[in-house]
Amino acid sequence: MSGRKKILAISGSTRRHSTNHNLLRAIAELMNDVLDITIFDSIADLPHFDPDRSNDNVPGTVTTFREALAHAAGVIICTPEYAHGVPGTLKNALDWTVSTADFSGKPTVLITASTDGRFGHPALLETLRVIEAKDIDQLQLLISFVRTKVDGSGNIIDERTRSEVKQLMNDFVRCLT
What is the pLDDT of residues 105-114, one digit of tens each? Predict the structure, then answer.
């Protein structure tokens, strides 16, 4: 399996067995032949963003996160929407990358998998554009009413959603080359 591209996956949910985490695990399994996907499980451990510590005295967990980003060929973000917005822990993680070029030019997939998602999804797209995530406008998917489409184990039980996820991931692989 050599030659697989290293990908960093980030769940916007802090629950280990959330629908978003489970969906990322299912994607990792689906794409295992071509992508080496690592899920960053420590998003909740990142301290509140502090611009004064963005370049000097950077907290260890932030350094770990930034190094994982730097070594990844691409990024997959799968997130719920909270109160019509981006989950605070995810926005906080992205804020820690503003003073770096970690996302700049890096192919990035955005999947918003939530009850609704229509508000948080475009807000997160704008943030990803600002940090120069590559191909974000074509590598995105909104999965509304996600619990009717993905079961508790991360299995995609809705045929249309399964097809959309497969197409999205195939497009992502093409953007990585």
Answer: 999 999 999 9
